[in-house]
Amino acid sequence: MTRKYFGTDGIRGRVGIAPITPDFVMRLGYAAGKVLAQAESATVKPTVLIGKDTRVSGYMLEAALEAGFAAAGVDVMLAGPMPTPAIAYLTRALRLSGGVVISASHNPFDDNGIKFFSEHGTKLDDRVEAAIEAALEQPMFCVTSDKLGKAKRLDDAPGRYIEFCKSTFPNDLDLRGMTIVVDTAHGAAYHIASHVFHELGAEVISIGNQPNGFNINAGFGATAPQALALAVLSNGADVGVALDGDADRLIMVDAAGRIYNGDELLYIMVKDRLKTGVVNGVVGTLMTNMALEVAFHQMGLEFARAKVGDRYVLELLKERGWNLGGEGSGHLLCLDKHTTGDGIVSALQVLSALSRSGQSLSEITADISLYPQTLINLKVAAGFNWQEQAEVVAEKRAVEAELGESGRVLLRASGTEPLIRVMVEAKTTELAESMARRIADKISLKIG
Question: Which residues form the active site (predicted)?
Fold first, then answer.
């Protein structure tokens, strides 16, 4: 499907610049409401759940969405600031018609976005997104007054979600004796994550939990884990947990301040599951480190790569009938625990592996060493296609030939930002950096 508005993770952009404007978001709510209304039976009035992160623009966009849904005759439940995976869970648990999250995830506060979940708590498939985009091209009307949608607050949303997260942790284990630093990036899980770990027995130290509308992801969270590493060291904690602004990503830190990315955490989860159950296969992405592919094959597991983006990991997991997958960025999927990526639930799976094994993060990952990987992000104009640049293509092929089977090269356009990402894996950090820089320099010449 050729998307006009939807990217790999909903619709996202700078607030006040199309499409993240109040008028567009109201029309988006109306269009989504019309699609939902068509899917429901004539006797059932659709109801959607709206959650948001802690960006100041969330108030404005929430009001616009609510107006659009009401005009389409759809009732709304407002959850307030809640993690993205919480809205997925609550939509399913409350048997609602759909869920909406107002968030730009790991982006800075002056960005925002809208993403949708189906009644099953899964991301919308291409067919539904296409239907919403088609409805956006039609004039906006309003149902008659007797059919207008109404809105109400879902006051117990945090408590419901906390209990759900705890339910994904083994009943025969707890976190007593463990000190955990929890960094919520001044984001949507600021009032939730610490309670989950504390109620399972851990001593919890919270950082990045004072949102003011402007500080989401700023120097804290999964995209800036150095703050967590310092807090773990200064407090003598056993482990650190970092979430991003909407709490669907996870990065962890050990007692020595070493940072563990999504690839390493996925490895821990898979390794633990092999001891306690069945793992039919694992899904990564084009960016997943080669070391995981090698390790999983040595374990006798099938490994498949999806396009970058957790929606594509999810699609491939469903296609293969598997449960475990993820990205190095910290999007991790355990489909036997939740329908979507969830930073808190993923952290609990890693912590249960540590508890069950009696090992630390460093000990449980001692048998795997990631290939050095260099990633360079280059800002480009909309529509820039590196594959149309002969010199860039030639340089990529030359680097691949030099690396042979001891490394990988990946060039791709970001699905959420105007960026070209250049990634190189090699046997040494120096080689990866030099090879990536060679290709990036060719692209820089083309974009000025």
Answer: 105 (phosphoserine intermediate)
User: Could you tell me which residues are annotated as the binding site for Mg(2+)?
Assistant: 105, 244, 246, 248
- Do 416 and 12 meet the contact criterion of CB atoms below 8 Å apart? yes
Spans of the chain below 70 pLDDT:
1-2, 40-43, 416, 448
Q: Can you tell me the distance from the alpha carbon of 165 to that of 183, in angstroms, rounded to the nearest whole number? A: 17
Contact (CB, 8 A) for 439 and 386: no
Contact between 78 and 66 under an 8 Å Cβ cutoff? The reply is: yes
Say if residues 231 and 194 touch (Cβ distance below 8 Å): no
Residues 6+ apart with CB under 8 A from 160: 90, 93
Which amino acid is located at 241 in the chain? V
362-385 per-position pLDDT tens digit: 999 999 999 999 999 999 988 889
Helix, strand and coil content of the chain, in percent to the nearest 5, comes to: 40, 20, 40
User: CB-side exposure of 336: number of CA atoms within 13 Å?
Assistant: 14
- Cα-Cα-Cα-Cα dihedral of 240, 242, 248, 250, to 10°? -60
CA atoms within 13 A on the CB side of 275: 10
Domains delineated in the chain: 11-155 (3.40.120.10), 160-255 (3.40.120.10), 262-364 (3.40.120.10), 373-447 (3.30.310.50)
Strands (E), 298-394: 302-306, 324-326, 332-334, 373-379
State how far the Cα of 188 lies from the Cα of 417, in Å rounded to an integer: 21
Task: Give binding residues as ranges.
Answer: 105, 244, 246, 248
Is 105 assigned a catalytic role?
A: yes
Of 97, 103, 105, 206, which one is the catalytic site residue?
Answer: 105
What is the separation of C-alpha 119 from the centre of its chain, rounded to a whole number of angstroms?
Answer: 19
* Spatial contact of 269 and 364, defined as CB atoms under 8 Å apart: no
Q: Using CA atoms, how far apart are residues 128 and 214, in angstroms rounded to an integer?
A: 33
